[in-house]
Amino acid sequence: MLTGRDIICFSSIDWDFNWQGHQEIMQRLAAAGNRVLYVENTGVRSPRPSDLGRLRSRLSNWWHSYRGFRRQAENLYVFSPMVLPFPHSRLARWINRRLMSSVLNSWFRSQKFSDPLIWTFLPSRLTLEVIESIPHKLLIYYCIDSFRHSSPAAGRIEASERDMIRRADLVLVTSEQLADHCREHNEDVHKFPFTVDYATFEAARENPAMTVPVDLEALPGPKAGYIGGLHRWMDTALLAGLAEKLPDVQFVLIGPEQEPMDNIRNLPNVHLLGAREHEQLPGYLKGFDIGLIPYLVTDYTQCVHPTKLNEYLSMGLPVLSTPIREMVSFDSDNPGLVDIGHNAAELSGLLGRRLESLSGDTESELRSQRIELARECGWQNRLEMMCELIEQRINEVRPCDESGWLERLTAVSRGGRRRVLVALVTAAIFWILLFAAPSAQWLGAPLIAKAPPASSDVILVFGGGVGETGRPGSSTFERSGWAAELYSAGVAGKIVLSSGFMQLSRRDAEDMLRVATADGVAAGDIILEKQAANNYENVRNCLEIMRLNGFSSAVVVTGLYNTLRTRLLFTTQLKAIEVPGATIDSIHLAPSPESVFFHRDSDKLAQLAAVLHEYAAILNYWWKDWI
Known about the structure:
Elements: E1 6-10, H1 21-31, E2 35-39, H2 52-63, E3 69-73, E4 76-79, H3 90-111, E5 117-120, H4 125-132, E6 138-143, H5 147-150, H6 152-155, H7 158-167, E7 170-173, H8 176-183, E8 189-191, H9 198-206, H10 214-217, E9 223-227, H11 236-245, E10 250-254, H12 262-265, E11 270-274, H13 281-287, E12 290-293, H14 308-314, E13 319-321, H15 325-333, E14 338-340, H16 344-356, H17 361-376, H18 379-397, H19 405-436, H20 439-444, E15 458-462, H21 475-488, E16 495-498, E17 502-503, E18 506-507, H22 508-518, E19 526-529, H23 535-549, E20 554-557, H24 563-576, E21 587-589, H25 604-623
Helix pairs in contact: 3-4, 11-16, 14-17, 21-22, 23-24
């Protein structure tokens, strides 16, 4: 057994998910004296509504830990990474890689992790890129799923899985079909199916005090049972056929419903007992007469070695299965220990005959064979075989002599050059977008809702930097100057200058007044509105002024990228403040044609920030029900 090693596990499931080989292996390695960091699943697809519980659990784990790290047991630590849930987005992956690498490097330094073994169940591109940033002794890829057949979303990581298989120093698989797949890219492939904690099941089997749970014991007659997730690979039509042909047999399914089981839920002799804790399962198996593996035969299930097979065998149970490849192979190697049928007619006959023979001498001998086989294949023996292989590979991959140093350095350097090139290209693209291209204008285009100035009763001028940075600036003078031009052109005979902002000791509205009067606007034609602290108050206060003065139409002068928010505000507030004769069609948004702030030679980053500020403001106003 390995001992004294530092191990990082990149898992395809979270620690608190259904107990599987991922947790069993890492818990045992930690108990053997290795330091283990278990990195929870970072995903192979975008989240769906059904993932809400898992997301809540991830957030809770993060909140109750330190930067996502928590101590699960002696030598065993779990890391719940917070990542952007878009595994196939290059930008999200770039961000996630840097976040994870930074946090993991902090862990390595603080815990003095050095030259670790990396053991991954997850061959995603993000995992691969994070692994590349970690100096390690050995890379082990444990292939337990056919991602290309499990779902279209998971199938998108097929290319990164090929790269993972090629780069791995050692590839472990759980089935012959997966071994065939991995050997296309790496010759060093070894089959180790997930198995069972034999000692736990033996204790339940031999202990008279371990009773069958009440909900199972209460069911009459023989019981054919299944433990595991109730997923889309289960042949529910087959189960319905078995239940119909064998009405005196109780079919008991224990596990979480991952897919609807509506076509068997209401059958009188089918019982969906729901999920149970892992330590409760031996008690339920003790109450079964036969164990079921009722899988559909598909490209995916042909790659599956059912873990439940060894759990059934450890309790001495006969096993009834459909003809998936691993079960056919097992039956060939161990004749008589399992029964395989292709349809409900075959399987019901096999099940009936097996039930009739349960009390016979032959069955007693078969029961002993099943138990002995489960003991030999238990996790203790299987993990020792894995560890022996890993130790051999460590000595082969990391020799003490200096041969091959140049080749290894060249390979690493090539990867480094690629990363440098990618970084340079990325930096160039960002530089072009930020400083050479009119990115702010592109991004701000949907925010424009302007119209040509039309003859109106009044010109409304919004100051205070509305539509740019949210602070007063050059826009104060540009907008009041533009309003003076419109006034001189006869567009309207009155002007309202609206701003409650202060610049140093001066009011923004009074600065606009000085500009307007200097440009020829009669002081008597100007109304000052000096209370508005934001765009919402600009609109409401100006509508109130229009109502009091009998104005029914207006030209509105504001920032170019503030016109959409202002139009939305007028649309909403005209319903709340009754202005006789005023409609949204009588409100004309005419921003000043020139803007120093948004000039092509001005600060590009500030322009982008201003446009993003405007989008955030619209979202905030919508949240407040102002628009």
